[in-house]
Specification:
The protein is mostly helical. 77% of the residues lie in helices and 0% in strands. The protein folds into 2 domains: 38 residues; 157 residues, A middle domain of Talin 1. The longest helix is centred in the first third of the chain and has 47 residues.
């Protein structure tokens, strides 16, 4: 009987410890979500300036891509995507939103190039497609910023160079990808071409 009571007490004690640990984790995650917007802005300021040395493939078009970090084939990549979406959602200023979208686009297009080097062509193509959708968003948000009087010519020129870089990388992927993936890549190439045309039109309006 005493053993049964001791086991029950031990069980209840373990349950309390687990509940405390759960509460602690929830508080840590909650505080992280609340404090990360400010930190995200600082990261944005840093990463927009570019990472380290450019690779040979990046020197064709003079544009420095930010290092993508963990790639889509990593088991923790989904968590990174959730984090990025939360940060992006919390940014309301259209110019900063455009900068964030461009950062996401640039990271993903370089990630797609790295995946090609690992011969993970299907994942590379899907990652490249997501990159170009972010690039399209960056251009649309740049137009919103301009309408609100928050245009920034230097940043618009950055988007224009980025569109050329993205097109260059996609052309490189096209030459290496499997035959059945080439129509998808050719369709994806329309995104940076359209982005380039639209941002050039916006630049023409700038003094």
């Amino acid at each position: 009987m005493q053993n049964a009571k001791a086991c029950k007490a031990r069980f209840l004690q373990n349950g309390k410890v687990q509940n405390l640990l759960l509460i602690f984790l929830v508080l840590v995650i909650g505080l992280g979500v609340l404090t990360r917007p400010a930190l995200a802005q600082e990261e944005l300021k840093f990463e927009i300036k570019g990472g380290g040395e450019a690779t040979e493939s990046q020197k064709k078009i003079e544009y420095q891509l930010p290092y993508p970090g963990i790639l889509p084939d990593h088991p923790l990549y989904r968590l990174k995507m959730v984090r990025d979406k939360i940060w992006g959602f919390l940014i309301r200023d259209p110019l900063k939103k455009s900068q964030w979208s461009l950062l996401m686009a640039d990271k993903r297009i370089w990630a797609s190039e790295m995946l090609v080097d690992k011969e993970k062509f299907d994942l590379a193509v899907s990652t490249a497609t997501k990159a170009e959708k972010y690039l399209e968003q960056a251009v649309n948000q740049a137009y919103q910023a301009e309408k609100m009087g928050k245009g920034e010519k230097a940043f618009f020129e950055k988007i224009q160079r980025a569109s050329l870089k993205h097109e260059e990388i996609l052309q490189g992927i096209l030459t290496k990808a499997k035959e059945e993936l080439r129509p998808v890549i050719e369709g994806t190439l329309d995104y940076p071409k359209n982005a380039n045309q639209k941002i050039l039109m916006l630049l023409e309006k700038e003094p």
